[in-house]
Design a protein that fits this description.
Helix content of chain B: 55-70%
Distance between the termini of chain A: 59 Å
Number of strands of chain A: 0
Oligomer: heterodimer
CATH topology of chain B: MetI-like fold
Radius of gyration of chain A: 26 Å
Largest interface: A-B, 139 and 145 residues
Strand content of chain A: under 5%
Strand content of chain B: under 5%
CATH architecture of the largest domain in chain A: Orthogonal Bundle
CATH architecture of chain B: Orthogonal Bundle
Number of domains of chain B: 1
Structural class of chain A: mainly alpha
Order of helices and strands of chain B: HHHHHHHEEHHHHHHHH
CATH topology of the largest domain in chain A: MetI-like fold
Number of strands of chain B: 2
CATH superfamily of chain B: MetI-like
Order of helices and strands of chain A: HHHHHHHHHHHHHH
Helix content of chain A: over 70%
Chain lengths: 326, 326
């Protein structure tokens, strides 16, 4: 009961803080709107844009530069060590594990999520009632990675084959006639794929919903014309549907790639990077906050940054193209 | 959480709204498509069902038999929930304070991000000034900075302040004579960090929407002598409710499900840490107590699931929001 009162008062305080901030904002609005004449525009610009620009500079721009600087320094951020941290990332024995794993993640998880999402979108397009299936497949997107880790922990739980099984996967495999299922999360290198399945479980709904909208946006007469020309089934799919939704496909794929590159929670909660499942983002967390090696942690963050950059540049180019069309 | 960076997806919008005619759709609908979709739906739902069932089974059964045996031996109890809510013999501290922390973190963080992003989006769309296009693209491109890159410097800023040589650019917030920052033990760093990280995508999305509002409306209001502040409050905010609602859901789910920012800025104490941190912690420490872990996980995902199912329409609209380009 105490906890309840205590908790509610915390939420109340938080809401009061919101009210205070909004009140301050209103006062600023009121004062600034009294400006007359030519000062009006610039003052409004500063008031409206100022908070966002300040927060972005403090929160993203400066930290990005500081982290980049930190990546050239030693563990305590005291001495300049040149490229030593990057040298460590790419040459130290054992590091190849998280590098290779990250590459596998970036390729396999997005491609499978998109492919399965596309398949579902196509199938749903042929169903009369789709909404319940769509909701249920989409649902994992609302679940945190930690929650997903616990959900899938139950699937991958290992017990001695002589005992009653608790893990669903072991039980299914035993029903299928395998007497001695492996300890899934320790089963190198396949445990990486088992972790990827969790990510795919989460992302398929996203791919499905977006691609389904794109497919529905294909004009009916295009489909009919292709049918008159004799295109059906696979031919229609590969020559009409796919080209029509190509842009959306690429966006879905790159979006999942960015999410996967930064994947951290799944690995951390399932294996904590042990048993050959480490990835760059979790290694970065371990170096920075467990080993307290700021230099290496920063260098790993820079590697992530360099990995995301080409994808975002590509998206910016696409965006500019769309804008110029308008 | 998984919706991160998902929001800028676009579907081709130059295509007409008309879709495949109903007749054609009915002809295409086939039983095998329905069958495959149902199989995948079941596969996608089973892991979560396993979580729910395990969480209501008594300790002995949850630990020693698979959750599917529940169907032949249905014994249910709510004692796992009461133990995980208040703490008990196994896990000393309950989830309740963390649950309220999640509320107290997620609600203000969502509101702050939305208000500041709306203001910036309005300025970029409707206050003409030199360089506004550049700022817009620069903000969009800031998505390139991975969270991981900003964490360490931000933590330093909150703890020790920043200075550029002798010039302080962020004050040292330590109380005189103590090593504790003024922010320690408060939600403030979490609110600020979440707001900062949400801004690029939020501004982009809201700008897409706000920029599409009819020009005549704005001009008429300007001619009538309305200030930017009046227009913002009386025109922009009410008209943007659909876009604001979609983004609010995203941001709320994102913050609620976040683990990385929480671990960095809140640690694991019941004062400020959210449910995700609690879950990650008990999973690591009491991993064998399946009945309690699953109950805790279900408590943590129930709010996102309610938000998701109740507001799915807005959620999907948010996913497709990039399509407002036109």
């Amino acid at each position: 009961m105490d906890e309840l009162v205590n908790g509610l008062s915390k939420v109340g305080n938080a809401l009061a803080a919101v009210a205070i901030v909004l009140a301050i904002l209103l006062i600023v609005f009121f004062l600034a709107s009294r400006a007359k004449g030519r000062a009006q525009g610039p003052i409004a610009g500063v008031v409206f844009l100022g908070p966002a620009v300040l927060l972005l500079i403090y929160g993203l721009v400066v930290p990005a530069f500081r982290t980049t600087a930190g990546s050239f320094q030693d563990a305590n951020g005291k001495e300049f060590v040149g490229l030593a941290n990057f040298g460590w990332i790419f040459t130290a024995p054992g590091n190849s594990t998280f590098l290779i794993n990250t590459v596998l993640w970036i390729i396999i998880a997005p491609v499978l999520s998109t492919a399965l999402g596309l398949t579902l979108a196509l199938l749903l397009d042929r169903m009369k009632r789709e909404s319940i299936s769509k909701s249920l497949i989409f649902m994992p997107m609302a679940i945190s990675f930690v929650g997903a880790g616990i959900i899938w922990g139950l699937v991958y739980e290992y017990r001695d084959p002589a005992q009653p099984q608790v893990g669903l996967l072991s039980q299914v495999v035993m029903w299928l006639g395998v007497d001695d299922p492996p300890n899934w999360l320790l089963w190198q290198p396949f445990n990486n794929f088992l972790l990827m399945i969790i990510m795919i479980w989460i992302q398929v709904g996203f791919a499905m919903v977006v691609l389904s909208a794109a497919i529905k946006a294909i004009p009916g007469d295009v489909i009919e014309a292709s049918e008159l020309d004799g295109a059906t089934g696979w031919k229609q799919f590969s020559k009409v549907t796919i080209p029509m939704i190509r842009g959306t496909l690429i966006v879905v794929l790159t979006t999942i790639m960015i999410a996967v590159l930064k994947i951290f929670d799944i690995v951390r909660t399932m294996t904590n990077g042990n048993f050959g499942t480490q990835v760059v983002a979790n290694e970065m967390y371990a170096q920075s906050f467990v080993a307290f090696d700021v230099g290496r942690g920063s260098a790993l963050a820079v590697v992530l940054f360099l990995g995301v950059t080409p994808i975002i540049i590509y998206n910016v180019i696409q965006l500019r193209k769309e804008r110029s069309v308008r | 959480m998984s919706v991160e960076a998902h929001e800028f997806v676009s579907i081709p919008s130059n295509l007409p709204e008309e879709t495949i005619p109903e007749a054609a759709r009915r002809r295409l609908s086939s039983p095998w498509a329905s069958f495959v979709v149902i199989v995948i739906t079941v596969l996608w739902t089973i892991p979560t069902l396993g979580l729910l069932i395990t969480s209501i089974r008594p300790k002995e059964q949850a630990q020693n038999s698979g959750w599917w045996t529940f169907f032949s031996d249905p014994t249910a109890t709510l004692s796992n929930y009461s133990e995980v809510l208040t703490g008990g013999d196994v896990i000393p501290g309950g989830i309740t304070p963390y649950f309220f922390n999640s509320m107290a973190i997620a609600i203000p963080a969502t509101i702050f991000a939305l208000v500041i992003a709306c203001m910036a989006a309005y300025a970029l769309a409707w206050i003409p000034f030199k360089g506004s296009t550049f700022i817009f693209f620069a903000i969009f491109a800031l998505q390139v900075v991975p969270l991981q890159m900003a964490l360490l410097p931000l933590l330093q800023m909150f703890n020790k302040g920043w200075s550029l040589g002798p010039i302080p650019i962020f004050p040292d917030l330590n109380k005189a004579g103590s090593a504790q920052s003024l922010f320690a033990g408060t939600y403030i760093p979490l609110w600020i960090a979440h707001t900062m990280f949400a801004l690029p995508i939020a501004i982009f999305l809201l700008h897409n929407f706000i920029g599409q509002l009819p020009r005549e409306l704005m001009e008429a209001a300007r001619v009538d002598g309305a200030s930017h502040f009046l227009i913002f409050r009386k025109l922009i905010l009410p008209l943007s409710i659909p876009a604001i609602a979609s983004f609010a859901i995203f941001e709320f789910l994102w913050v609620w499900n976040d683990l990385l920012v929480a671990l960095t800025f809140a640690g694991g104490t019941p004062d400020v840490a959210p449910v995700t941190a609690y879950l990650a912690n008990i999973k690591g420490t009491y991993g064998a107590q399946l009945h309690l872990i699953t109950a805790g996980a279900f408590i943590a995902i129930v709010i996102p699931l309610i938000v998701f199912f109740a507001l799915q329409r807005f959620f999907v609209r948010g996913l497709l929001a990039g399509s407002v380009k036109g």
